[in-house]
């Protein structure tokens, strides 16, 4: 696409204009190559304007900035480069309107719900792609950099997916992405809001801002798109106050459009009776935990919204054996889970209590540089709902692990806890303490294969540590 065509009608000041061909759009200076249009965006840690000379050397042919900088390249100066990035990317790559797209937001359950919807769409022959916390999945997998990428990266992924023959998409949509406009221009055919509980208050500051950011996903629906929400949660009142032409509620509450009843649960999975219209069908899922009841209903509703026959929806749910790092069984009665919020810790421990015959042991910590208010709450819940809580390090980032643990201890009641700062040692202690009927849950990191100390990532996997513990025991 020619530069003049790309920036047409864009309110801006243009310097050293040349009508050149643009081969790609990039905001990350490290990804710039010959033919790139570079968009300088201010981030939390770095300012893209500082790298203009670097991208010029790398082959960029033009730059978009918020202030005039010293460069020989054509330069488009405008007020907000982050906002412009989305508009330019959509103009360059298109909006992939032909691809059915489902967005899933909420504090907990996003990953599992997207995996369930992906399985449903696969069963329906809709050849889906997936963008989320664990990985980006097309014909092949690539490691996820963040839950919801920047809009330019999303559109590049969609182009790659389309070239691979993928015709539908399900993606996790974080509150950060919604508030910062990362998904503006993505027209969803269905948007799912799973639930809301405390998290990310370091970014949103208030629960009201967090809620409003999540609700923004419904403004990104196509005119014919479906808003899907949890009718058993308080969010239903906020959703009901919105003007939404097409909506589906799910839950066990009377009046839910997709109504479910948990018939049976065990360590081997769930059996759920689902009512929709005049249909009543029973769905079996290998997923473990009462909390997956709502994830399954949310996915069922998304399938209905996309006109998938209910029998195919049920088959898709039943075929999903597990989700990496989500109540994933690693050894006999030993699980890893991503639970890292008060609500998630409470939910997983209450569910596990229904299965365990002996003691319930949980290992957990809290992330650094994040919402400090939830630390004491997680300490209180973990010690109240488990028989032994081993408090350890998560991703301390720029904080001292000992300081984070001290914050957790502010909420602890009783003496059924042990502090072991080193996470591998904490896991080893719990595994060695485990008796045959005990259950161990290693919470907080789930699928992650690293820990973050200051600005460094070190290789670390809860799953691998658990496996090594059992090898040493045997």
In the CATH scheme, the class of the largest domain would be Alpha Beta
Q: Which percent bin holds the helix content?
A: 25-40%
Instruction: Report the strand count.
Output: 24
The largest β sheet comes out as: 11 strands, mixed
Q: Could you name the CATH homologous superfamily of the largest domain?
A: Mur-like, catalytic domain
CATH topology (fold) name of the largest domain:
UDP-N-acetylmuramoyl-L-alanine:D-glutamate ligase
What are the segments in which pLDDT stays under 50 over at least 5 consecutive residues?
none
What proportion of the residues form beta strands (DSSP E)?
A: 15-25%
Work out the count of structural domains. 3
What topology, given as strand order, has the largest sheet? 9-8-7-10-6-11-12-13-14-15-16
Q: Assign an overall shape.
A: globular
Rg over CA atoms: 24 Å
CATH architecture of the largest domain: 3-Layer(aba) Sandwich
Terminal-residue CA separation: 62 Å
Number of contiguous helices:
16
Describe this protein's structure.
By secondary structure, the protein is an alpha/beta fold. The protein folds into three domains: 3-93, 3-Layer(aba) Sandwich (Udp-n-acetylmuramoylalanyl-d-glutamate--2,6- Diaminopimelate Ligase, Chain: A, domain 1); 100-319, Mur-like, catalytic domain (UDP-N-acetylmuramoyl-L-alanine:D-glutamate ligase, 3-Layer(aba) Sandwich); 328-473, Mur ligase, C-terminal domain (Protein-Tyrosine Phosphatase, Chain A), CATH 3.90.190. Helices cover 33% and strands 24% of the residues. It is built from 16 helices and 24 strands. The strands form four sheets. The chain has an eleven-stranded mixed sheet, sandwiched between helices. Strand 23 and strand 24 (456-459) form a beta hairpin. The longest helix is centred in the first third of the chain and has 14 residues, at 110-123. The chain is globular. The relative contact order is 0.09. The mean pLDDT is 95.
């Amino acid at each position: 696409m020619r530069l003049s065509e790309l920036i047409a009608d864009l309110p801006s000041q243009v310097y050293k204009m040349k009508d050149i061909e643009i081969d790609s759009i990039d905001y990350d200076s490290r990804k710039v190559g010959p033919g790139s249009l570079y968009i300088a965006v201010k981030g939390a840690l770095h300012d893209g304007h500082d790298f203009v000379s670097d991208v010029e050397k790398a082959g960029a042919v033009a730059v978009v900035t918020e202030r005039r900088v010293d460069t020989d390249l054509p330069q488009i100066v405008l007020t907000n480069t982050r906002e412009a990035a989305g508009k330019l990317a959509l103009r360059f790559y298109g909006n992939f309107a032909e691809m059915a797209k489902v967005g899933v937001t909420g504090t907990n359950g996003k990953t599992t719900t997207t995996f369930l919807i992906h399985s449903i769409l696969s069963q329906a022959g809709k050849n889906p792609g997936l963008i989320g916390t664990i990985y980006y999945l097309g014909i092949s997998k690539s490691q996820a950099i963040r839950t919801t990428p920047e809009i330019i990266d999303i559109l590049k992924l969609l182009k790659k997916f389309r070239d691979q023959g993928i015709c539908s998409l399900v993606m996790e949509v974080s509150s950060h992405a919604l508030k910062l406009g990362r998904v503006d221009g993505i027209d969803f055919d269905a948007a799912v809001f799973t639930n809301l509980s405390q998290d990310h208050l370091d970014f949103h500051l208030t629960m009201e801002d967090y809620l409003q950011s999540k609700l923004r996903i419904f403004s990104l629906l196509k005119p014919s798109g479906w808003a899907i929400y949890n009718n058993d949660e308080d969010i239903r009142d906020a959703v009901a106050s919105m003007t939404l032409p097409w909506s589906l509620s799910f839950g066990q509450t009377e009046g839910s459009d997709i109504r479910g009843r948990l018939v049976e649960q065990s360590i081997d999975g769930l059996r759920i009776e689902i009512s929709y219209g005049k249909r009543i069908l029973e769905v079996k899922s290998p997923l473990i935990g009462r909390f997956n009841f709502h994830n399954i209903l949310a996915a069922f509703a998304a399938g209905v919204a996309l006109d998938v026959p209910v029998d195919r929806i049920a088959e898709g749910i039943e075929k999903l054996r597990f989700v990496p790092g989500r109540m994933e069984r690693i050894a006999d009665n030993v699980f890893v889970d991503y639970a890292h919020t008060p609500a998630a810790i409470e939910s997983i421990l209450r569910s596990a209590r229904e299965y365990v015959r002996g003691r319930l042991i949980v290992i957990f910590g809290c992330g650094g540089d994040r919402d400090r208010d939830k630390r004491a709450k997680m300490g209180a819940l973990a010690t109240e709902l488990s028989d032994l809580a081993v408090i350890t390090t998560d991703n301390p980032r720029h904080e001292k692990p000992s300081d984070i643990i001290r914050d957790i201890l502010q909420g602890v009641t009783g003496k059924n806890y042990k502090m072991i700062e080193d996470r591998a040692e904490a896991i080893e202690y719990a595994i060695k303490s485990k008796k045959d009927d005990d259950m161990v849950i290693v919470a907080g990191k789930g699928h992650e294969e690293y820990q973050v100390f200051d600005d460094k990532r070190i290789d670390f996997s809860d799953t691998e540590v658990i496996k090594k513990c059992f090898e040493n025991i045997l």
